[in-house]
Amino acid sequence: MAKAKKLTDFERGRIVELYKQGLSQRAIAAEVGRSKTVILHFLNDPEGYGTKKSSGRPKKSSPAVSRRIRLAVRQDTGRSSTQIKAITGADCSPITIRRHLREKGFRNKKRLQRPRLLQRHKIARLDFARVHQTWDIERWKKVV
Fold first, then answer.
1. Tens place of pLDDT for every residue, the chain, 144 residues?
2. Are 12 and 46 contacting, i.e. CB atoms less than 8 angstroms apart?
């Protein structure tokens, strides 16, 4: 089951006022539209509600490493995660770098494997286009 959103400031104030008026926790829950458990937890410690630090393993990358990773990607979008790791000196795996970039909104794109288009290729294509630009549809139908 998914976690519900925290109580808003308005809901907190409303709960306190309804509690001061003498309503039960069940009645307050029905009035506010939240579970009686969240009302109970809030009333037990109104000041400490929502301040508990989240548990879990700390992030491997620091904010400084995060900035260096993003800078390396912006400088050359064709870099692989292994190259980014080598450039930034990040102490994490390439998979962690890919996950970090995905969280920051960068999308990976696999490059197509094809030879580079050299200047002589460009000239040859342009020559071909100039020679064949006057061809009509009937001549092109005979090509294949």
1. 557 788 899 999 999 999 999 999 999 999 999 999 999 999 998 888 888 887 888 888 889 999 999 999 999 888 889 999 999 998 999 999 999 999 989 887 777 888 888 999 999 999 999 999 999 999 999 987
2. yes
Domain containing 73: what range? 63-103
Domain assignment of residue 39, yes or no: yes
For the entire predicted model, the pTM comes to 0.46
Residue 58 falls inside a structural domain: no
The verdict on residue 120 lying in a domain is no
| C-alpha closest to that of 89 among 107, 57, 62 | 62
Residue 87 lies in a domain: yes
Q: What's the structural domain count of the chain? A: 2
Can you read off the two tokens belonging to residue 6?
């925290």
